[in-house]
Amino acid sequence: MAIKALYDYTYPSRSAQSFYGDDMLVNLWQIDDRWFCSPATVRVPRAMTWKDFYQTQFLPYVSANPHTTGDESYAWTLVDDAFSPQDDQTLEELGVRHKNTLGFTRA
Q1: pLDDT band per the 50, 70, 90 thresholds, residue 83
Q2: What pTM did the predictor assign?
Q3: Residue 79: which of 44, 42, 31 has the closest Cα?
């Protein structure tokens, strides 16, 4: 999420991609649950497959929500566009970039 400074901001970013090497930051956000409105940011390798991301990052995150079990089907967005991930593709191949937001709703 971009924040606009109200003055000349000349400080270098402390969260730029260059600080993370082969990793990147990805935001997770459940759009359709007003009671679980806690987005999370995870640091993951760009070469991580969607299947590994889903198992190791998404399921632990979503299991913290008492209204979900992790067995539900989800519709995804990448930034604000519909997103259809494939298990065997890497995050980079799927177009996920540093500090992108993956939103999801129960399908």
Answers
A1: very high
A2: 0.86
A3: 31
